[in-house]
User: Which sequence fits this backbone?
């Protein structure tokens, strides 16, 4: 039985998850740690094969009963992000989570989450989409509230769960509406039916479905005002999970939203109205994310709010594409998903590395504050450099990848030739400048000569934490100087997305 | 050949940045040595470029998609700026060896200085609008890092962030213009835009023109964006020499010079450019008159002289503007490095605590007076010749109010220059200090720059030849022809008279105390930055208030959060339904 | 007044949603909130069945609803486990007391 390589991308992490758990319980946590990393490293081979196959033969499909999967460019991109960042996080967590109660559950849940995210990217019908989405949510609930004896962590987990569950219900209602209106669940068939739809009732149904699914998936994608769970969850989770949440889970939510709603749009100006809606969310996300990040004194909370604003940039790209019918901005949005995942992941891992050496290794559980970062570069030069690179890249400064991905979105916005799009691009550029007002002081603090008390008490930084930081930093700089390196990922992904419209 | 030199001019400093950083702060001697080697190598490579200038694309790297081709061109205008950046950069690095001796975090310092030098060269040598913006932003990043180098000093950090924010805000103008150009022409090639600018609709061209003007004004610290430059004086002095004399601020002028052929037809643009130049020149000169911090005086004077360069472009003469840029780069670097020697020896920047230093620091005094003379416009120093050219172009092609304003500016310049020189080097010592003259590592660049100040005007002929190939409408002229033109022009006498008046006013200041008292209000306004600082503070304040107000939306109350989802749903339904049901 | 089965189902959905959203706004006890989530989920399932009935695809709809029930049960279990922990650490199940994280 020869399974197509892309299926292994889902199966390997998902099947390894219980194995890792058992190995951890029976053979000790070290087994769990390394097995988890090994699992993800091993997925490199089927990934390369799947990518080659995609380039040569186009999208691949797989059907088994109710399970309908299709592997296209967007799936490849999400898989790259999930597996790549996941591998870095499992290596990072090796030292970070060492000795925590329930460590093997952490790795098991993490692997499961990664596997189902890849599955989400491949979902070819609405119900599949919901199932993988729900599985991702369940895995993430366990990971966010991992520190079960920390009240703040519990609080974040509870709020996240309740809001996310409401979102899931709305999605389900939306799917029901689509089903009722068209009788179809497969994305392609819905698109056909939506264009052919004649009756008033079915049009209303599709409209309601679009709204329900936008809001439902929007909770997970952190659209403002559905975002209130995010700062708590992303800052209270273990740092590796914060990286995954900001770097992959939000993006997965956004991808789910686009995949689900795109077929409903049909001909006519529904696409334009949806685009306008996305643009509205984009503006809200950008300004709220940036203004609130400004007021944060805790590093991880600041980074969480910054994620809100970056979702705004992605929405800008996709919104322009939907609103004007031109695809160029969508490629920018996709590139920004990738670059934000990389940079925000790096930022959270670097902050996490510092949190580890300053607090966790000393047995404390305090939050990492900006003033704790004072003089961090003296003792932890690589981590400080990594955090600096990540944060300045997020602000869009060259020669880092954030500049290139934002540029591609901005170009798309102007190429559309629409004044509203152009004005929003200017708004986005101004927001980037605004974000410098909270990013720059972080960098300045780290390179002080006077160290904070926390830095003075800090422990040594393990190699397993430094390696992912170095690798990701190099990627951020390399892609920033030569963005063509990811053309192979972003091009097919945006084509796949646009094909759905 | 050009391709190799371009790669070396940009690549050597950038490679050097990496190498110096990797060498590690435990080996400062190696870091100093490596920095000097790479900076000088970059400078030599830049000079080599002078031999191979051409308007053809020398390097083309296709990236594809929304990024176009990464192109590099070595034409006269670009090479000139690249040479200024790399040569003066090298001198500043050599100066740093002594100035930064014993400082910590040298790796970071040299890495950013070298990164900066390479980025300026890249900015000048690129033919792609995307890369222009790319390098533009890199210079902003590096200058921020260097201004706030002493991270433990809150003034330095604040100065760095202020510079970053203001220049970045201006950069949005460049971004918008570049995107509009790409959207309409489908290419990032600067040469394509310059050739095809008339094809663009007039209102778009106007937006691009004024967007670029805003970016240039912010980068070159022109009014109303000038407030960042004086605060940037917190940087180590070699950095001030680099940024404020030689390079980063010139990027704005370069931008205007480069794109002038495309924008001169835009109604009101040249007038706006000239206006910005005049207002800035006068405003900054006034602020220099009342400043007591030596570096601040030099900073304001830089802003003021940049005003001259901008004004020259507004009058249609890229040659005058760039020639003044040339002179200014040399004599301002000289003044900053000289000031650095003084500050390094004394330990303070406050001129009120100096005085009589000429006895203890003869070499520094001599070179400083040379530099100051050039700034004031005293013949036969290079500043005199280039300022005369600007004034003459202003009289011939610019608005009359502009010429008169710039003439007054020349007088004010002479006044504050005399004040500065006198307060530092002459009179009775007002503070207690042990001083020494400049050590060799500092002295060598000083002497070289002083020699340059005395002689660079002789290069007018080759200089105009260099630019003639790059700037349409610019004609080559021999040095002799130029000199005889200036010497015989009656306007020159007028300018000299005004300069003499300025110098005299300082000398007779005790007799003019009545006027000084009357101008006290103006002086206080000048000390407050004429209200522009207040604008900066206002903007910062409303941003903070907006953020504080928004914080109340993050209530932490689960009931509201969850119900908010339902509310959002209703709003989304309304919006989607808004255009009527399909 | 005779309504078609589908209309009755849709009415039921509306009522359940109404109860659910009202509950989200006013329920203080964490357990009550979890119950409210369950009510909302049932509303969605009912909607699903109504849709299936309208489209004459009851078989598909039923199998999907069963899957959803399973998924939802998992979520409920996790939620209740968290609630137990909350009671242990905070000493209360009142969500209005869970406001340490704000701003």
Assistant:
């Amino acid at each position: 039985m020869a399974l197509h390589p892309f299926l292994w991308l889902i199966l390997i992490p998902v099947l390894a998850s219980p194995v890792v758990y058992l190995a951890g319980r029976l053979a000790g946590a070290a087994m769990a740690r390394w097995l988890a990393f090994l699992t993800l490293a091993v997925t490199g081979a089927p990934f390369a094969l799947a990518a080659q196959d995609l380039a040569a033969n186009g999208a691949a499909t797989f059907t088994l009963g109710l399970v309908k999967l299709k592997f296209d460019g967007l799936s490849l991109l999400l898989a790259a992000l999930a597996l790549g960042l996941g591998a870095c996080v499992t290596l990072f967590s090796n030292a970070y989570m060492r000795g925590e109660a329930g460590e093997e559950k952490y790795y098991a849940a993490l692997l499961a989450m990664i596997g189902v995210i890849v599955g989400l990217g491949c979902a070819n019908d609405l119900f599949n989409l919901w199932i993988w989405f729900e599985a991702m949510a369940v895995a993430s609930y366990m990971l966010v509230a991992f520190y079960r004896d920390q009240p703040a962590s519990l609080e974040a987990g509870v709020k996240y769960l309740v809001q996310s569950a409401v979102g899931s219900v709305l999605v389900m209602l939306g799917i029901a509406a689509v089903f009722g209106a068209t009788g179809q669940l497969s994305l392609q068939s819905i698109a056909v039916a939506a264009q052919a739809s004649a009756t008033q009732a079915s049009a209303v149904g599709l409209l309601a479905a679009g709204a329900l699914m936008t809001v439902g998936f929007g909770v997970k994608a952190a659209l403002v005002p559905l975002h209130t769970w995010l700062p708590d969850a992303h800052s209270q989770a273990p740092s590796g999970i914060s990286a995954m949440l900001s770097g992959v889970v939000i993006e997965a939510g956004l991808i789910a939203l686009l995949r689900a709603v795109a077929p409903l749009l049909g001909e006519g100006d529904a696409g334009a109205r949806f685009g306008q809606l996305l643009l509205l969310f984009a503006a809200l996300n950008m300004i709220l994310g940036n203004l609130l990040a400004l007021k944060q004194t805790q590093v991880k909370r600041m980074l969480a709010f910054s994620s809100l604003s970056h979702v705004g940039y992605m929405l800008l790209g996709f919104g322009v594409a939907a609103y004007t019918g031109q695809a160029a901005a969508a490629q920018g949005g996709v590139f920004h998903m990738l670059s934000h995942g990389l940079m925000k992941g790096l930022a959270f891992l670097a902050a996490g590395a510092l949190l580890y050496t300053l607090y966790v290794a000393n047995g404390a559980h305090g939050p990492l504050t900006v003033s704790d970062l004072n003089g961090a570069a003296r003792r932890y030069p690589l981590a400080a450099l990594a955090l600096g690179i990540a944060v300045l890249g997020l602000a869009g400064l060259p020669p880092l990848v954030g500049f290139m991905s934002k540029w591609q979105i901005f170009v798309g916005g102007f190429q559309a030739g629409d004044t509203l799009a152009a004005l929003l691009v200017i708004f986005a550029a101004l927001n980037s400048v605004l974000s410098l007002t909270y990013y720059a002081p972080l960098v300045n603090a780290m390179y002080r000569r006077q160290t904070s008390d926390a830095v003075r008490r800090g422990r040594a930084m393990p190699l397993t934490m430094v390696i992912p930081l170095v690798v990701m930093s190099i990627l951020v700089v390399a892609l920033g100087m030569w963005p063509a390196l990811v053309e192979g990922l972003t091009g097919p992904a945006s084509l796949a997305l646009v094909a759905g419209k | 050949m050009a391709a190799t030199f371009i790669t070396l001019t940009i690549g050597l400093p950038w490679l050097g940045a990496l190498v110096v950083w990797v060498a590690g702060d435990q080996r400062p001697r190696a870091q100093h040595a490596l920095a000097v080697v790479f900076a000088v190598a970059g400078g030599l490579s830049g000079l080599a470029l002078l031999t191979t200038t051409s308007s053809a694309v020398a390097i083309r790297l296709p990236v594809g998609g929304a990024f176009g081709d990464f192109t590099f061109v070595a034409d006269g205008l670009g090479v000139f700026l690249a040479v200024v950046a790399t040569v003066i950069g090298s001198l500043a690095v050599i100066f740093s060896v002594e100035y930064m001796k014993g400082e910590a975090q040298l790796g970071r310092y040299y890495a950013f200085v070298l990164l900066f030098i390479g980025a300026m060269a890249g900015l000048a040598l690129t033919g792609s609008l995307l890369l222009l913006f790319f390098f533009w932003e890199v210079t902003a990043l590096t200058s921020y890092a260097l201004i706030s180098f002493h991270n433990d000093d809150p003034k330095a950090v604040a100065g760095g962030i202020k510079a970053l924010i203001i220049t970045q805000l201006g950069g949005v103008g460049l971004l918008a213009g570049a995107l509009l150009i790409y959207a309409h022409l489908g290419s990032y090639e600067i040469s394509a835009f310059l050739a095809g600018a008339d094809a663009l609709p007039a209102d778009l061209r106007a937006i691009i023109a004024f967007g670029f003007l805003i970016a240039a004004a912010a980068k070159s610290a022109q009014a109303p964006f000038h407030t960042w430059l004086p605060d940037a004086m917190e940087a180590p002095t070699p950095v001030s020499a680099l940024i404020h004399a030689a390079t980063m601020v010139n990027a704005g002028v370069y931008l205007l010079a480069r794109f002038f052929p495309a924008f001169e037809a835009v109604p009101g643009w040249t007038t706006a450019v000239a206006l910005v130049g005049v207002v800035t020149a006068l405003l900054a000169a006034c602020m220099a008159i009342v400043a007591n911090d030596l570096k601040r005086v030099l900073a304001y004077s830089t802003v003021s002289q940049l005003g001259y360069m901008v004004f020259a472009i507004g009058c249609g003469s890229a040659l005058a503007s760039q020639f003044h840029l040339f002179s200014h780069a040399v004599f301002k670097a000289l003044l900053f490095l000289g000031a650095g020697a003084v500050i390094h020896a004394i330990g303070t920047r406050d001129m009120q605590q100096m005085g009589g230093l000429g006895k203890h620091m003869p070499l520094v005094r001599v070179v400083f007076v040379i530099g100051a003379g050039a700034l004031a416009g005293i013949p036969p120093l290079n500043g005199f010749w280039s300022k005369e050219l600007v004034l003459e172009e202003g009289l011939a092609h610019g608005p009359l109010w502009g010429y008169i304003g710039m003439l007054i500016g020349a007088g004010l310049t002479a006044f504050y220059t005399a004040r500065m020189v006198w307060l530092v080097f002459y009179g009775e010592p007002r503070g207690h200090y042990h001083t020494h003259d400049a050590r060799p590592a500092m002295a060598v660049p000083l002497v070289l720059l002083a020699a340059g100040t005395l002689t660079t005007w002789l290069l007018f002929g080759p200089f105009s030849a260099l630019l003639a190939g790059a700037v349409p409408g610019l004609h080559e002229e021999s040095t002799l022809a130029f000199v005889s033109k200036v010497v015989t022009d009656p306007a020159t006498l007028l300018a000299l008279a005004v300069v003499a008046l300025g110098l005299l006013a300082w000398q007779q200041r005790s007799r003019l105390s009545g006027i000084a008292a009357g101008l006290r209000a103006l002086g206080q306004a000048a000390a407050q930055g004429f209200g522009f600082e207040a604008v900066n503070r206002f903007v910062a304040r409303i941003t903070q208030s907006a953020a504080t107000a928004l914080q109340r939306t993050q209530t932490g109350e689960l009931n509201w959060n969850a119900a908010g989802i339902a509310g959002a749903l209703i709003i989304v339904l309304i919006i989607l339904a808004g255009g009527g049901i399909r | 007044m005779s309504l078609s089965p589908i209309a009755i189902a849709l009415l039921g959905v509306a009522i359940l949603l109404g109860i659910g959203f009202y509950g989200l706004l006013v329920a203080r006890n964490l357990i009550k909130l979890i119950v409210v989530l369950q009510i909302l989920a049932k509303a969605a399932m009912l909607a699903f069945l109504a849709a299936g009935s309208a489209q004459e695809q009851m078989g598909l709809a039923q199998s999907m609803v069963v899957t959803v029930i399973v998924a939802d049960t998992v979520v409920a279990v996790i939620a209740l486990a968290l609630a137990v922990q909350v009671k242990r650490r905070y000493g209360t199940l009142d969500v209005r007391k869970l406001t340490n994280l704000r701003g």
